[in-house]
Amino acid sequence: MAEKENKMDKIVSLCKRRGFIFQGSDIYGGLAGIFDYGPLGVELRHNIKQYFWQKFITEREDVYGMGAAILMPEKVWEASGHIGTVGLVDPLVECKICHERIRADQSEVIADHEKTHKKEKVEWTDPIKFNVMVGTKLGASEKTATQVYLRGEITQGVHVNFKNILDSMHPKIPFGIGQIGKAFRNEITPRDFLFRLREFEQMELQYYIKPDEAEGKKQYEYWKQFAFDWYIGLGFKKENLRLRQHAPDERAHYAKDAWDIEYNTPFAGWKEAWGIHHRADWDLRRHSEYSGIDLSYYDEETKERFTPWDIECSGGVDRAFLFILLEAYSEDRLGGEARTYLKLAPKLAPVKVAVFPLLKNKPHLVEKAREIYQKLKKEFGAVEFDDNGNIGKRYRRQDEIGTPFCITIDFDTIEKPARAGGDQTVTVRNRDTGKQERVSESDLVSYFKDKF
Ligand code: GAP
After folding, report:
1. pLDDT tens, 410-420?
2. How far away, in angstroms, is 397 Cα from ligand 1 center?
3. Ligand 1 environment, Cβ below 6 A
């Protein structure tokens, strides 16, 4: 276990050192449960979201994308059931010695806290329900300022736009609306790096179907598998992921059925990565009641009017980011030397290709390397140039951030044209195997074309 816990520490340190993740407001002592993404982190996060958008939205004919606002009035959250003591609430207990407040359902956190009081016997208050919605006021005048909430789930922005999408896009049921964006929860005990945050990003699909048990079952099974396959596509080993059904007392207030995709983490075993929820007509029905606006759907084919059911796929971007790093983090010996590398799927890697001149002080090598770098950068974007230190060190630096390919321009590139036409070759080195092959300069773009 110690070795496994160690992996998390190593990842946290790598993330800071190499510009993936920084503690939020670091120079002011940090803010618990809040993290900032650095230059490499923001690229990896973008690539995760891009893959979601591609598979859940743009590749499909039956799903629309949208981007709703973060701030929403109190009434939205009353309707959705998130404020009050039913919805987004966690059980909270307080230590009677030091008054620290902790989630009552996290035995590990409780045990850790009790250890801090050494020999004193810790007593806890009875659990109370703590609502984790983050509220604020909008408006300059005390009297007229309105209570609003930063969304606790991105879902409600979709449901409140259901009629707008019907009226503007005229979709035929079944259809979905997908979205990516920030959500906020005043988590009692943010912990485990990016796992439990107070500000985080979600990627979600709300899929509207006919209110029918057989249809609900069919669509639910389909989306469970679709979400699971998508997760595998991020580069996970199948044995490290599983689908688990919630027990009835575990389900969110809106869910008729709920399954999680879980990842086998080194820090706490199986933990939730995604939720797939059968929300039935909970949201549309409640928003119809609370807003007074009819959110039903008229089926032209069957001439029926009904309130659709919703099957939801909801995943955390930051949690996927953390699990991807845990899965990708590797240590081995290559050519007799110890190294750390991130075995990231090439489509997720923040840098796709790094280009090196063998020597920094040979202008003809540098010039050629820069020419190839510019060409590939124009084509693939995330390409780096590096002429600092010896080649071995440059490989290690790229391995550590998960760059799948490195290209070296050496004397042979310049002096030994591979073909009669004078074409030149470079070495392309594979991150995982360390194997190198010579590729003609003119073939480089097509060599990389389908790899990212
Ligand atoms: N719309 C449904 C919904 O929000 P959820 O299970 O509460 O369902 C969905 O959240 C996903 O959002 C989770 O599977 C997780 O990946 C992510 N998530 C939830 N709370 C989080 C937190 N405090 N920090 C990071 N990610 C979180």
Report:
1. 988 888 765 55
2. 33
3. 153, 155, 185, 187, 196-197, 200, 202, 204, 272-275, 312, 314-316, 318-319
